């Protein structure tokens, strides 16, 4: 066997076609790289916007905490406004999530939908039917059609009928 390279010959028409195809591929590569850079810039900008909005929520919480730290005996007016202030911070945070299509799951029934809920406990109740949601422990969220976190609930459980009722004969 010879170590000399083998030469391949192609006709001019095929050579021109290959050069044309290579040129098209190079142009597509440049367009794809530019598109990727633009997507990275857009993603970075969106991430920065998210962080800035979350920092606003943090600022509001820090202001409340600083006030409490500097005023160990807060005024009755402050204590009265505190639930509204915390609710405002919560609304702001939910607004930040909502802008990114992360929304709370709204339960439409008193019975758990196991696609949306996770039962974490059951409690004996006689005032409501079995399997009725008695408490939402942790709110669930969805992102578009995806469930990020199911709603955690407690449901009613019928009282056991085996209470030691033995018929005496």
Summary tags:
169 residues; alpha+beta; three-stranded antiparallel β-sheet; three-stranded mixed β-sheet; 2 helices; 18% strand; elongated
Largest beta sheet: what is the strand line-up? 1-4-5
Q: Could you tell me the number of beta strands? A: 6
What is the first-to-last residue Cα distance?
108 Å
Task: Report the sheet-strand fraction.
Answer: 15-25%
Would you tell me the overall average pLDDT? 91
User: Regions with pLDDT < 50 over 5+ consecutive residues?
Assistant: none
Q: Bin the helical content.
A: 40-55%
Count, helices: 2
Q: What's the helix-strand series?
A: HHEEEEEE
> Overall 3D geometry?
elongated
Structural class: alpha+beta
Describe this structure in words.
Helices cover 49% and strands 18% of the residues. The chain starts with 11 loop residues before the first helix and ends in a 12-residue tail after the last strand. It has helices at residues 12-70, 76-99; strands at 102-104, 117-124, 133-138, 141-143, 146-149, 151-157. The chain is of the alpha+beta class and 169 residues long.
Quick summary:
With 169 residues, the protein is of the alpha+beta class.
Write the layout of secondary structure elements.
Layout: H1 12-70, H2 76-99, E1 102-104, E2 117-124, E3 133-138, E4 141-143, E5 146-149, E6 151-157
Parallel strand pairs: 2-6
Antiparallel strand pairs: 1-4, 3-6, 4-5
Helix pairs in contact: 1-2
